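anyone seen this seq b4? input:
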Amino acid sequence: MSELGISERRACRVLGQHRSTQRKVPGTPDDEAALTADIIALATQYGRYGYRRITVMLQRSGWVVGVKRVHRIWRREGLKVPHKQPKRGRLWLNDGSCIRLRPEYANHVWSYDFVEDRTHNGRKYRMLNIIDEFTRECLAIRVSRRLKAVDVIDALTDLFILRGIPAHIRSDNGPEFIAKSLREWIAAVGARTAYIEPGSPWENGYCESFNSKLRDELLNGEIFYSLKEAKVVIEGWRKHYNTQRPHSSLGYRPPAPEALVWPAPTPGSVAPATPTLAPRPVMH
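predicted toks r here
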C-alpha cells in the first residue's frame, strides 16, 4: 500500500475488506490431510452417499467436524454423487388412497415387494424385501431363484414369531401377494392386507424407495457368481442398512442401531411368549 502512497486503512475501507485480511496468513489445519483421506475412503466405499451422510459417518468414527468443512473438502477433491434416477411421482394420489393408511407406530404397517437381478451366468434370482414403514427397518430379504406364495408365507411366519403380527401388510397386486392361500393365512393370524391401486407403484412408496437404494448402492455395483454369494452379500448389506447407514428421513440415524443389553439376562430366565400362528397351507 505504501508503494501507491495510500494507507492500508484507507485502501481496505475503499475495497470493503477487513484490515485483518492483509495480515493473517491462511493456514491449513494439522488434521486436514487425515480428514481428506477418510472422506475419500468413505466416498470410495459408499459411492452413492453424499457429503451430509459422509459427515455423519465421520462423526460416528470420532471426528469432530461440521458439514461445512466436509463440503469444502468434498468440492475441492471433486467428489460428487451422479444422478441416475428418473423423476418419480408423488407418494399420494388425488383421491388420497395412499394417505388413508400411514404408519403410526412400529409394527403398524409392513410392506413387501419383489426385486429381480441376475447372477454372472445370466440366471435370474429374486429378492423378497420386507420393511417396517414406520421405523424404515428392513426386516428381511429372502433371496432365491424362485419365490412363490408359499415362500412369502414362510418368510412372514419367521418374522411374526420374532417380532409379532403387524396390523397391516401393504403390497402390490402381484400374483404371489393376491394368492388365495396367502390372503386367507394373513386373515387367520389377525393381520389385514392393504393392496395398492393397480399401476400405482408410488402408493407403496416406502418399499419402492428401499428397492431403489438396494439396487443403487449394492446391486448395480456387484457381480455375484453364485446364489450363495448373493445371499451372503445382500444379508450383510441389510444389516449395514439397519444398524449403520445414516437415514436422512430419521435425522441421519440408522433405523435399528446395535445396542448392548445390560445387565445380561440371567440363566434360566423365561423367554417372552410367541404368538400362535395358523398352520401353513399346503400348496398344490
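The first strand starts at residue 109 and ends at 118. Residues 227-243 form the longest helix (17 residues). kinda curious what u guys think
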